[in-house]
Design a protein that fits this description.
2 domains, two-stranded antiparallel ribbon
């Protein structure tokens, strides 16, 4: 019984350590950094005493009162004083590299999973259209767009005036309402894709800036590249008080792996 409890606790502890290893290693790296400084500061007086003694001995023997121990000699005689600091500094670097390696591995796994999920979703959407037909699939998408508007009504949200038209739009990615013109938005979409082609990639905040909208937090971390250009889809819906509203969907949405 006691053995089973011990095994269970060890399993839980092992899972916790594995899940939080980047955070733990980062904490150890921070502690190691300050410990390295402390050990180096603590070793300095000892090293200075050794240097002073050697210089004094040389002066007594040679009567050269201006003698200074050469730098190489200082290192040769005092490096052992800094051994604890060197060891701690080395461990600190290992902690940093370890945390970064784990994060890179996890990010790679997330990107791989995202790619698989995206491919599965596209295959599913294709089969839905093939099974029920384009008109019924469009009707379902319209219901989804309308539900998004209903869940995030204009009342209580800031309406962004871009100065590029008076048609009400709803951006499904950021959940924001703005006013523009359908032809201008399509033109901006084409201009944005040209920018991707010329520069190989562009982030989401660049697109918002072109629309005349404020940027969003994290908008520079996702975007598009030449592998898959941005593709928008517009659905005519009704916002609250039966106000016409164009829902702007991203057929090809921004990715975190666009650079």
């Amino acid at each position: 019984m006691l053995l089973n409890v011990l095994k269970s606790n060890l399993r839980i502890a092992g899972g916790f350590l594995q899940q939080n290893s980047p955070t733990i290693l980062t904490g150890l790296a921070v502690g190691g950094f300050f410990s390295t400084i402390f050990l180096a500061v603590e070793a300095t007086p000892k090293a200075l005493d050794i240097i002073h003694t050697l210089e004094l001995d040389h002066t007594i023997v040679t009567e050269d009162y201006d003698y200074k121990l050469p730098f190489k000699e200082k290192v040769l005689w005092t490096w052992k004083c800094y051994t604890p600091a060197i060891v701690m500094g080395t461990l600190t670097v290992c902690f940093i590299v370890g945390a970064n390696t784990i994060n890179l591995r996890r990010n790679a796994a997330i990107v791989s999973l995202y790619s698989i999920t995206e491919a599965t979703l596209k295959e599913y959407q294709s089969k839905v259209v093939e099974t029920i037909g384009e008109k019924k699939e469009k009707a379902i998408r319209d219901k989804v767009s309308q539900e998004r508007l209903n869940k995030n009504p204009l009342r209580g949200n800031t309406l962004i005036i871009t100065g590029k038209g008076d048609t009400l739009f709803y951006d499904t990615y950021s959940g924001r309402y703005f006013k523009s013109d359908i032809e201008k938005v399509r033109k901006i979409e084409n201009q944005f894709n040209k920018e991707i082609i010329n520069g190989y990639w562009a982030d989401l905040n660049t697109f918002y800036h072109m629309l005349g909208m404020p940027t969003i937090t994290g908008g520079e971390e996702v975007g598009w590249n030449t592998d898959k250009l941005m593709e928008l889809e517009f659905d005519a819906m009704l916002a609250e008080n039966d106000q016409p509203c164009i829902v702007m969907n991203y057929i090809s949405g921004p990715k975190a792996t666009f650079r």
